[in-house]
Amino acid sequence: MGRDGNKSCFACCFSTPTTSSSSSSAIQLLFFIVPLILVSFIVFVLVPRNSTWALIYSLPPSTSAVAAAANSSEKLGAAVYAESSQLVLDLPSRVVKTVDVGGSSGEATLSDSVEVAVNRSASPQLSAVEAVTKFQELNEAKEYSSLNTSITDSDSLNITINGTPNNATTSPNETIALPLKHNRQVRTKLDKVEAGLQRARWAIREAKNGSQLRDPDYVPVGPMYWDAKAFHRSYLEMEKQFKVFVYKEGEPPVFHDGPCKSIYSMEGNFIYKLDVDTKFQTKDPQKAHVFYLPFSVAKMVRFVYSRDSRDLSPIRRTVVDYINLVAQKYPYWNRSHGADHFMLACHDWGPEASFSLPYLEKNSIRALCNANTSERFNPVKDVSIPEINLITDKLTGLMGGPSASRRQILAFFAGGVHGPIRPVLLEHWEDKDEDIKVHKYLPRGVNYYDMMRNSKYCICPSGYEVASPRIVEALYNGCVPVLISKSYVAPFSDVLRWKSFSVTVSVDDIPKLKEILMNISTRQYIRMQRRVLQVRRHFEFNSPPKRYDVFHMILHSVWLRRLNVRITDGHGVVAN
Fold it and tell me: Which InterPro entries is this protein grouped with (predicted)?
């Protein structure tokens, strides 16, 4: 009985009536939930609370919207020539365009007719690419001493060039969270290149408020520069790290060759100097900041173009075929859609050659003598270079002139009548005034360079194209240039403050030319003439090149544009 009684009691304690089965199930479920809550709380307390998510706001609704913003920005850059120089000098302080090539290399073929939409919008709202770039800049700033910039995993963060994540549809003002992996110590070679550019940007920004740097050859000072300290630091940074990869494909005379003794001489001389250069040229394309397309438009006009046809398609096909060739052989053109590539042309048809390919015109750096904003020259992205008429490979006999007080002629011009501006100049001033010497043809026995050396001001009107070799000739001979043109961006205006050593006269003011020049005081003229003598070193052609001369100034302008571009690689991480 006792054993049966105990057995009954044990059964009564653990058996439940049928009517209370639901409350017992709740109690059993509670036994599982409580430990789970405790574990979650412990994890929440122990795990670091630093967020690994970047919030991206206000994505552009479509590629066309971004393209419209880019077009409006380009028009703005073309309209504000007077401000463009200062804007470009301040390039390192901000990113004008960010090119993200993750996942786009295979899709962007050269046959695409759609132009690349580059983030150049002036809107305060950030695009996805710009926001991610700013997020990465914060990481770079935190890790600056070790230079271990963040590398994001391509599977987690893959943004197309128009700012919209791949395989995603977004609406305006929609918030998207992009997961970012933890920092890795392994970086790609492109990351290293970009880290070096970031250091250069930081150094240039710091130089603006720092003391003047020492230099054994030349220290830029004076009002001829928008910011002399920033320019000096930028130039030194260029000398320290700038690397150019020259594509070896192509045969002379169209490639790796060019005229060296004509008004197009900068094409041939730059190609030749860069081909034999050992300081800036690199044989390793993965270490390059920019890639040079070594074709000569002047040689294309001579050997490819048929003068009787007036058909530019052979020139355009030559350019397209060459870029197709290097794009198929190397990954770098498709990686950036040409944003880190540059061409150089002094021929009038240089811009036309660049129109052969949308990416070449819209993305690439174009170093042009014909820097005409009405022909789609963009002073923020493109480079204006001087037109130099070289007779030999030396400047012997081309430079000199008396001091400012010994120049007796007020102003001088002699040249052919072509283009819309020169006929107006000749109509008002040819043989009309003893102080304004304007000639279609020089009188017999009168030397052109002697006239420049004895003149205070040298009139430099545009011809069919905006550029004129008279600008450099005036500087060589110590004559203050008088620029008369429309839509012209003067050479190296990203660095040089032209109004401090030249005079700009509009076409409408040609009848008042003498009045304008006479209103410049003698003291002010002497200042301008001294500044001409100081800045002309930047336009001197030397063989071999010398520091701060025209060859290095062209490279520096390309360097500044490269500082404006931040290229990210979305194809994964490659060990060093």
Answer: Exostosin, Exostosin_GT47
Domain that holds residue 382: 242-391+545-575
Instruction: Tell me 3's DSSP state.
Output: H
Q: Are residues 229 and 251 in the same domain?
A: no
Q: Taking Cα atoms as reference points, which of 120, 267, 264, 136 lies closest to residue 191?
A: 136
Q: Which residues pair with 411 in a beta bridge?
A: 436, 457
Q: Can you list the pairs that 35-43 forms with residues at least 24 positions away whose Cβ atoms lie under 8 Å?
A: none
53-95 pLDDT, tens digit per residue, is 222 223 333 333 334 433 443 433 333 333 433 433 444 333 3
**Residues with Cβ < 8 Å from 332, sequence gap 6 or more?**
245, 285, 288, 291, 326, 340, 341
pLDDT tens-digit readout, 10-30: 333 334 444 444 556 666 666
Residue 489 sits in a domain whose CATH number is 3.40.50.2000
Whether residue 378 sits in one domain with residue 275: yes
Query: How far from each other are the two terminal CA atoms of the chain, in whole angstroms?
Result: 85
Domain-embedded: residue 30: no
Residue 27 within a domain: no
Q: Rounded distance, CA 285 to CA 447, Å?
A: 49
Identify whether 136 is part of a domain: no
Joined tokens for residue 294: 């070594």
Contact at 8 Å (CB) between 479 and 503?
Answer: no
Q: Six-digit token pair at 189? A: 């070679």
